[in-house]
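Example record used in the benchmark description.
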Amino acid sequence: MKEQDDFSLSALISAYASCGRMTDARRIFDRKIDPCVVLWNSLISGHVLNNKEIEALALFNKMQEKGVQQDFSSIAVVLSACSNLCIFEHVKQMHGHAHKVGVIHDVIIASTLIDAYSKYGMPNDACKFFSELRAYDTILLNSMMTVYSVVEELKMQSSFSRQCQIKA
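Model output (structure tokens):
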């Protein structure tokens, strides 16, 4: 029997993951002796999709141990997992890692980082990172608009809180 190509297996893993059938997705992944980055990304992404971020991070670590070269997709999904888990230290580590492997200027990576910095109440860090980017697109500009809207919302909440204290 002819061995299936990696992209077909990746589609199958993603399909199982989108149905919440991670055991089946893992079974397909485990058939490969030496899975490529596309298969790793599909499995890791499936775990994040199914709110199994800890498992996704463990798989990413295993991927690194096996010496598989990560790409922008690997890092984007792990950043998402870290952000979902509210593990800011890991987000900062992945920021450094993205820089090290040369994918820091990828739109998805940059947008995910800006969103994470905003989520953690660090709009200055989001703005600083944004200013260091080489180019901007609609996605990045929308991410920054979100940062600014959150900052403005916090200012309005603070102002409202002060008004309530004065009236009390």
